[in-house]
Amino acid sequence: MPGRNSRTYAAPMFPVQEIHKQLKKIDKNIPASVAVFLAAAEEYLAAEIIEKAAAKSRQKGLSTIE
């Protein structure tokens, strides 16, 4: 695809800055890298849950996730 690079594909879908803002409410000294890690972990878990739900729906012969 023209105009897309590896950075575009690697961009997290979960809002890192919003997560960091929420974490700063708990402790002002939390580094941004913690928010990046947490966003990546949330994204991974969401993808796994959706993947499992899609597989179960296919097993049942459905075209959508219930």
From TrEMBL:
Determine the domain of life of the protein's source: Eukaryota
Instruction: Name a GO molecular-function annotation.
Output: protein heterodimerization activity
Gene3D superfamilies, A to Z: Histone, subunit A
Looking up InterPro entries in the UniProt record yields: Histone-fold
Q: What's this protein's name? A: Uncharacterized protein
